[in-house]
Write a structure and sequence with these properties.
Structural class: alpha/beta
Radius of gyration: 26 Å
CATH architecture of the largest domain: 3-Layer(aba) Sandwich
Number of strands: 15
Shape: elongated
Strand content: 15-25%
Strand order of the largest sheet: 5-2-1-6-7-8
Distance between the termini: 34 Å
CATH class of the largest domain: Alpha Beta
Number of domains: 2
Helix content: 40-55%
Largest sheet: 6 strands, parallel
Oligomer: single chain
């Protein structure tokens, strides 16, 4: 049995945040019904590498779900959704504030139908304030949440080349929903959840990215940023290696492993505090030695000395590494539409076992009839909705 079996989720979303959150819950056993508009469905279906209406991005965010294609601009479409709500545990959406209310599917309305419902609303900037109605995509949130500032140096911002805030918001939503489900088991009532991408992004980056903006007393000592110490690669003759020198003992072993232990007698580097203070000078002195070693030679030396390190891998090297094979992390499967595909399995092991992945991502409206029938709509009612273009 999977942890979230018997939980039913209606997802109203486009792009990443709500899609990722509900996909993770689908992997853990929840039944997730993705409610998609009539025309093209979730636009994520058509972004980047794709086959038919299944893009790689869509497949990665929507496996294990059922797709219901329905016209929410029609009164009958809205009433059909409302008729499903008594049997639903969670509604999750990432529309701008007010959109679901205009559709007639707002939190108060749906929770009046089902007081045990967990209604989860994801927004870009929150429901109040000057940006509450502004469009929000990951780069905008990286700018507003301080991710770009934390990644850059000085006045030069740098953006993470991944949908970081989208994904961390999805993780945050998943955690919040499961917490709300746990609370419902105790008190017997549902609730409304609000969360924003900007809050999720700042909460995520703040603990290390804002170290010098946390302590506010005048007498505290400022120190070097952890991210400035850990994340500069060390260049070798055929690539680069990342090394974490988190203590004086590790730094001693590092310098010994590359035959430069004499630097430990230099007053600039004779203690951990001094090494951290003068880390850039240390790196400049060590750089020529690293440049004379291959990545494999460097890693072999450092691992023998128990120094945390890793070769910086290409995407191809990442997917072919023995560690992932040992973990059983990546799987090749045959999607009925997209064909042979690769997927990364859900990370948690429950009882020492990885959860069996759900079926591949659905085509647009693939499960419309079966979903409606499972909620008690008769064949005649389903045909009526189709005849009136409420579903296709």
């Amino acid at each position: 049995m999977k942890p979230l079996e018997s939980v039913t989720i209606l997802e109203f979303s486009t792009m990443i945040t709500a899609s990722l959150a509900s996909m993770m819950m689908a992997e853990q056993g929840a039944r997730v019904i993705k409610v998609e508009p009539m025309e093209m469905g979730d636009p994520m279906r058509y972004i980047g590498a794709r086959k038919a209406d299944i893009s790689a991005l869509f497949a990665n965010c929507n496996r294990g779900k059922e797709s219901l294609r329905i016209d929410l601009k029609s009164a009958e479409g809205v009433e059909t959704i409302k008729a499903m709500i008594p049997s639903v545990d969670v509604v999750i959406h990432n529309f701008r504030p007010g959109v679901m209310d205009k559709l007639g599917l707002g939190s108060e309305c749906l929770r009046s139908i089902n007081p045990k419902l967990i209604y989860t609303a994801i927004s870009g900037f929150g429901t109040k304030g000057p940006l509450s109605g502004a469009p929000a995509y990951d780069p905008m949130i990286q700018a507003h949440a301080g991710v770009a500032a934390a990644q850059g140096r000085g006045d030069q911002p740098a953006f993470m080349r991944t949908l970081l805030c989208d994904k961390i918001t999805g993780y945050t939503a998943c955690q919040a929903v499961t917490s709300a489900l746990f609370m419902r088991e105790r008190v017997g009532e549902g609730q409304h959840l609000d969360l924003s991408m900007i809050d999720s992004g700042l909460f995520f980056i703040f603990l290390d990215g804002f170290q010098n903006d946390t302590l506010l007393s005048d007498d505290h000592e400022r120190g070097p940023m952890l991210i400035d110490i850990l994340y500069d690669p060390w260049l070798c003759s055929d690539g680069s290696v990342i090394i974490s020198l988190g203590s004086y003992e590790i730094q001693r072993r590092f310098l010994t492993a590359i035959d430069m232990s004499e630097l430990l007698e230099d007053p600039r580097f004779d203690s951990f505090e001094n090494q951290i203070r003068n880390i850039r000078e240390l790196k400049a002195l060590v750089a020529p030695r690293c440049a004379g070693l291959t990545c494999d030679d460097m890693v072999d030396r450092l691992r023998l000395a128990d120094v945390p390190c890793a070769k910086v891998m290409t995407r191809e090297e990442v997917l072919s590494q023995e560690q992932l094979a040992a973990n059983g992390t990546v799987e090749i499967y045959d999607h009925p539409v997209a064909g042979l595909s690769r997927r990364v399995l859900s990370p948690p092991l429950f009882g020492g076992e990885r959860l069996e992945p759900g079926r591949g991502a659905p085509t647009h409206g693939q499960h419309t009839d079966s979903v409606l029938e499972s909620f008690g709509l008769s064949d005649e009612r389903v045909q009526h909705l189709r005849n009136n273009a409420v579903i296709t």
